Amino acid sequence: MKYIFISLLLLIANYPAQSQSDEAMIRKIYNQALTKGESYEMLDYLSNEIGGRLSGSPQAAAAVEWSRQKMIAYGFDTVYLQEVMVPHWVRGKQEVAHVVNSKRLGNMDMTICAIGNSIGTGAQGVQGKIVEVKDFESLEKLGKKNLEGKIVFFNRPFDQTQIHTFKAYGGAVDQRVYGASEAAKYGAIGVVVRSMASNIDDVPHTGTLRYSDEQPKIPAVAISTIDAETLSQALEMESDMEFYFETHCEMLPDVLSYNVIGELKGSTKPNEYIVVGGHLDSWDLGDGSHDDGAGCVQSIEVLRIMKELNYKPNHTIRAVMFMNEENGMRGGNKYAEIAKEKGETHVAALESDSGGFTPRGFRTTGGDEVKQQLKAWSVLLEPYGLHDFSQPGGGADIGPLAEQGTVLFGLQPDSQRYFNYHHTTSDTFDKVNKRELELGAAAMTSLVYLIDKNGL
Hints:
The protein is of the alpha/beta class. The protein is built from 12 helices and 14 strands. It has 2 domains: 2-89 and 253-454, Zn peptidases (Aminopeptidase, 3-Layer(aba) Sandwich), CATH 3.40.630.10; 92-248, Glucose Oxidase, domain 1 (3-Layer(bba) Sandwich). The protein is elongated, with a radius of gyration of 23 Å.
C-alpha cells in the first residue's frame, strides 16, 4: 500500500508536465470524432445493408469482407484475416407457442423465440404440463417424480434494485445458459425461460445455451416478459396447465470464418500490442446495432482517428473484429491461442460490447497500480463524462488474453436501456444515437492513446 501511495504521488507530481500535451491530444480526438467521425455511417451500412450476422451465415461472411475492405480503404498499415471454425446454428421458420385448453387463458398464444444452440422440436412440437421454478435449487427439491415428462418454466426476473443492469443480467442469465441441461437431469422434455430483459414487454430475447454432454438435449425457448408474467399468474390458479411450443432450429456442421484484424504499426515498440475490438457476429433477430455492431465500428474508428490526426503510436495498435462471441467464443479463443503461439506481448486490450450508449467510464481487470493510473488520468477524462472506473471486468472476447498477463479494459456506457434491446428484434440501427456512438469512439481512442503514450 505504501508503494502504491508513493507511485500515485509521483504520478501527480509529474502530471502538470505531461498533462498539457495529453489534454490537447484528447481534445483533438473528441473534435475529430464529433465533427468528422465515421462510426455512425459505418454502422448504418453494417446494420442496414448487411443485417443480423449470426456465425456461419452469409451475412457474417459479408461482414467479414466489408470490415476487411473498410480497414484497407482507411489505409491501416496491415489488414488481414485470421481463420477460425465457427458453429452454424440456424433458427428455421417462425416459432409457435400457446397454452393448451387453460380454464383461465383458453388456447392463448405466447410470444417466444428459440434459444441459440437449442435443438428444435420439429413439426410435432413439445407439449406437456408446465412447472414454474425460480432457480436450480427448486429443481432439485421437486426432483424427477415431479418433473419427468413435463416442461420447466424458469421465471427468475432481473433484480430491479441493481443500478448496474449487467449485474442484474448476471444474476438471472444462468437459467438461460444452463437451464435445459439442469431440467433434463430430472426428465423434463423442454424448457421455457423468462427473457433476459429489464422491462416488461412482448419482445422475446434469444441468447445462447450450453448443453451438458452428460444429459439429454431438450429444446429451449425464451418467452417475453409480459407473457412470463401472464403465465406465472395463471399457474398460481391452475397448477395442472399444459403448454405447447414448436421450433425448427438446428445445428449444422461448423463453417470456416475469420477474425478481421487491422493494425497501425508501433514506432518504438512494434512488437508490443494494444488491442481494441468488438464482435462482428450478432444474433439473427435484429441487425445487431448495439450488440455488437457499435463496438466494431468504434474499434475501427479508434485507428482511423489516430491515423487522421497523424498520431504515430509507440506500440502497435490492433483493431480486431472477433467472430462468434454470441454462441461459441471461438474467435476470442483463437486470437489468444495464436498470440500465445507467436509469443506476442499484449500490453492492454479494450473491448466495446455493452452497446453504443453514452460512455460513463471503463471497467478493468488491472490491479491497484492500474486503478491508480486510471485515477491519475481521470482529470483528463472527466470533462468528457468519463468518471466511473470502479467496476471490474473487461470483455468476453479479450478475456482469454488475461492468461498471458494482459490488462483488460471494457468501455462502460450507460446501461439502463441496453437490456431493452439485447438479443431481440428491437436491436436495430434506429435505436442508436449518433452522438452517443461517437462519444464512445472518442473515449476508447483517448484511453488507447493514454496507455500507448504513458504506459500502465
